[in-house]
Design brief:
Blueprint: E1 4-13, H1 26-29, H2 34-48, E2 57-61, H3 67-79, H4 86-90, H5 96-105, E3 111-114, H6 120-131, E4 137-144, E5 158-165, E6 174-183, H7 202-209, E7 214-217, E8 226-233
Helix pairs in contact: 2-5
């Protein structure tokens, strides 16, 4: 794969407080889960930095999707009369966040949601690379909300947005090159403890590494002890 240029990045973590999700109008936002609102939050930060959202392809990666909403529906089936909230049911699919954002902003271009467990970040990156055949800009967002209390292991919520470009003439914070799965890929920088069980935890390391010339893993080791990574080069 050829080089990709990271023009800007944005992160939401629990210590930043409740997301404003200003890209989604208030009446629509009140019906949105935390998972959807943190996707809108980091996207809004990138739009403020110049991301042409309506011209960009969107790739949303999530390990568990709308897990809190899904768990609430299961509780309703177990504890109630079996009737489900139509509003919650409509918002329980794994691509809810991408759909809500597209509706709110009038985005009618390509958008896709990738769910691949702990390999979500790597799979979403591959998806984004494929879209550069037809797009100059790609918004890559990976996000997961905390698991419900009854579903350990627990982790903090995390959302990371990356504005990716194929144009080497654009200002950027990093040049990134895909490195096929291999052994002994370092975790650099380290993943914060509250995110250790998040399926998209390595996105945190990726953002922390931007601006350095360093290799960063995108996934845990597979059965062979191999993992995909990115070779980052400082601009």
């Amino acid at each position: 794969m050829s080089d990709v240029f990271v023009r800007a990045a944005a992160t939401w973590t629990a210590d930043r407080g409740a997301p404003t999700a200003a890209l989604i109008p208030a009446p629509q936002r009140r019906r949105c889960s935390l998972a959807t609102r943190i996707v809108a939050e980091v996207t809004g930060t990138l739009v403020d930095r110049g991301l042409p959202l309506l011209d960009a392809a969107i790739v949303h990666g999530t390990g568990f999707g709308e897990i809190v909403t899904t768990a609430a529906l299961l509780d309703m089936m177990r504890d109630g009369d079996g009737a489900l909230s139509p509003m919650r049911f409509a918002g329980s699919v794994h691509n809810t966040a991408c759909g809500q954002l597209s509706i709110a902003q009038g985005h009618t271009g390509v958008s896709t949601t990738i769910s691949a467990g702990v390999q979500t970040l790597a799979a979403a990156w591959i998806e984004a690379m494929g879209l550069f055949a037809d797009h100059e800009h790609v918004l890559l967002v990976v996000a997961d909300e905390p698991m419900p209390a009854t579903m350990p292991p627990h982790h903090d919520g995390l959302a990371v947005g990356l504005w990716l470009s194929r144009n080497p003439g654009d200002p950027c914070v990093a040049r990134a090159r895909w490195v096929a799965p291999q052994r002994n890929v370092a975790v650099a920088p380290r993943v914060p403890a509250p995110l250790l069980h998040s399926p998209v935890r390595f996105a945190s390391s990726l953002v922390d590494a931007l601006g350095q010339s360093i290799r960063v893993r995108l996934e845990p080791d597979d059965a062979r002890g191999c993992a995909a990574s990115l070779e980052l080069t400082a601009p």
